[in-house]
Specification:
The protein is 27% helix and 38% strand. It is of the alpha+beta class.
């Protein structure tokens, strides 16, 4: 939650959503339009590794090339010296872990 209230590109990070082994995800709001997005930020420790930076950028490029109703759309990619982030559409609803716990497989 170290990135709350920071601005990434045109998006202010307003809410922590979750994290995995390599990245954290935040809800962000476009500063001028007010639209909501999800911002995936690569773990700062991993950002120093050139190979991991390239993999993260390739992930963004690959995801941006996909167009399917069941795949989150990539809106933008932001690269700063100590931070990489992928900006995606924000999907509202229950996370997969909660859904499985409440209704089984």
């Amino acid at each position: 939650m170290e990135h709350l209230n920071k601005v990434i590109g045109k998006y202010k990070l307003t809410r922590f959503i979750g994290e995995g082994g390599m990245a954290s995800v935040y809800e962000g709001t476009h500063e001028r339009l007010g639209t909501k997005v999800a911002v995936k930020i690569l773990n700062p420790v991993l950002t120093a590794n050139k190979e991991i930076r390239l993999r993260f950028e390739n992930e963004a490029r690959f995801m941006a090339s996909l167009n399917h109703p069941n795949i989150t759309k990539v809106i933008d990619f932001d690269e700063q010296p100590e931070m990489l982030s992928i900006v995606m559409e924000l999907l509202e609803g229950q996370d997969l872990s909660s859904l499985i716990k409440s209704g089984g497989r």
